[in-house]
Write a structure and sequence with these properties.
With 426 residues, the chain is mainly alpha-helical. The chain has one domain. Helices cover 68% and strands 4% of the residues. A two-stranded antiparallel sheet has the order 1-2. A two-stranded parallel ribbon has the order 3-4. A hairpin with a 5-residue loop joins strand 1 and strand 2. Helix 3 packs parallel to helix 13, helix 5 runs antiparallel to helix 6 and helix 16 runs parallel beside helix 18. The protein is globular, with a radius of gyration of 20 Å. It starts with a helix and ends with a helix.
């Protein structure tokens, strides 16, 4: 039904409010609970449970937030592809079938590339090609794993995957998700795409690949990889010159946190998705070059401030509460809060201005979703402000431009799969 609405509105060229409408019509999925096979036994297995709930809710909220900005900056093709991407993501989040997941991920790849190519700049074309190459390598590895599993079991069901097939599929999904050296495509694509596309990529799409990874099972062997991913992303974010690239590396670091505790992973996907969607959308209205003086509108700044506080693990925020539940090591928790707040401080503006902009006020009101007053941590009340101050005073003056070529991205992807497999990390 949703696909029919998407194509109908597109054909009629009435797609201005399409993403907004489609995101609202997905709410009914949140109340559906089922575990069934389509086309009889051993057919396509679909499941709607607590894991599906949080991923679908993230998809709804992030698409809804992006749709508000798309109404203001309307482009027919962009609205159409965003709406179609939303629907396909919903299908992915109820799928429990390995081959169906492959088809849906490849469909999403095409839609994301079309979204990237809908940008008018030449750099959008280049980054689209980078993503195509990286995704093609990852998904071919995944398909080999699916083939081996089907040969051994005669089933595409995601349950009881083991051996070489499990290794191949997890390696592919890690690469597709933008984890550590497996996914150097992530900062390139997220930072160089259109603002709304970047928001959708970071808020929903990149995290969506974690859904089949969680279904396959995130074991203790991913803990070390998660820690490496966090520090790798956070350090590059800390030295980035471009605001969007900083946010892209921040996304990579937050994906590392999700790998630390699969129990709370779906819930953290929601908190991070809303935060990063708001942050990427804000880059349309502020200076991206962190070396230049920046002035923020007060309500836009408040939305950015709350989103960054949540990512940094500050008290009174949903992200802070979830980090406290997910990270069992006190030392690691201290470093995660400190590093996250360091690059947060780096982005702070020098001036604030008040303007009667209802659009920015709406952003601020949406950011209140991230407020969680029940959570109070003395550690975060001290660490986060100190980190912000250090980031503003010292690291705001240290800026580098990081760029990865297609050859480097693919080389590190294959190299990482080989090296990490030797140590049993994946």
């Amino acid at each position: 039904m949703q696909i029919f609405l998407v194509f109908l509105f597109y054909i009629l060229k009435k797609a201005k409010f399409l993403p907004f409408v489609i995101s609202l019509t997905s709410i009914f999925l949140l109340f559906q609970k089922f575990d069934m096979y389509l086309i009889g036994y051993n057919g396509v297995h679909i499941v709607s449970d607590s894991i599906s709930f949080y991923f679908i809710l993230t998809n709804i909220l992030c698409t809804f937030i992006v749709s508000i900005q798309l109404i203001r900056f309307y482009k027919l093709n962009t609205n159409f592809f965003v709406s179609l991407t939303h629907v396909i993501l919903n299908f992915l989040f109820i799928s429990n079938d390995l081959f169906n997941i492959y088809v849906l991920l490849e469909t999403l790849t095409i839609l994301i590339v079309l979204l990237i190519l809908s940008g008018e700049k030449f750099e959008h074309k280049l980054v689209g090609l980078k993503y195509i190459f990286a995704s093609a390598v990852a998904m071919n590895i995944y398909l080999f794993g699916v083939g081996i599993h089907y040969f051994k079991t005669g089933s595409f069901d995601i349950q009881n995957v083991s051996g070489i097939s499990e290794f191949l599929m997890k390696s592919a999904l890690i690469s597709k998700a933008g984890i550590f050296l497996f996914g150097l495509w992530l900062p390139e694509v997220h930072s160089n795409a259109e603002t709304e596309t970047s928001a959708l990529l970071s808020g929903v799409y990149t995290q969506s690949v974690l859904y089949p990874l969680i279904r396959l099972g995130i074991g203790s062997e991913f803990y070390f990889l998660g820690v490496l991913t966090f520090f790798f992303g956070a350090i590059f974010a800390l030295f980035s010159k471009d605001l969007k690239k900083l946010l892209a590396f921040s996304t990579m670091s937050q994906l590392g946190i999700i790998l630390l505790n699969p129990l709370f992973a779906p819930f953290y996907v929601l908190a991070h998705g809303v935060s990063k969607t708001l942050l990427f959308l804000s880059t349309r209205f502020v200076e991206r070059n962190l070396e230049k003086e920046r002035t923020y509108s007060i309500f836009l700044f408040l939305a950015i401030f709350i989103s960054f506080l949540s990512i940094s693990g500050f008290s009174f925020t949903l992200g802070g509460y979830l980090k406290e539940q997910m990270i069992d090591s006190k030392i690691l928790s201290v470093f995660i809060s400190l590093f996250s707040s360091l690059y947060f401080g780096k982005t702070l503006p020098k001036k604030l201005k008040f303007e009667k902009n209802h659009f920015f006020l709406l952003f601020f009101l949406i950011s209140l979703i991230l407020i969680y007053p029940i959570f109070i941590s003395l550690k975060s009340l001290v660490l986060v402000p100190i980190g912000m101050l250090i980031g503003k005073l010292f690291f705001s003056k240290i800026n580098f431009e990081f760029t990865f070529t297609t050859e480097l991205i693919l080389t590190f992807m294959i190299f990482s799969i080989g090296i990490f497999s030797l140590f049993g990390v994946i």
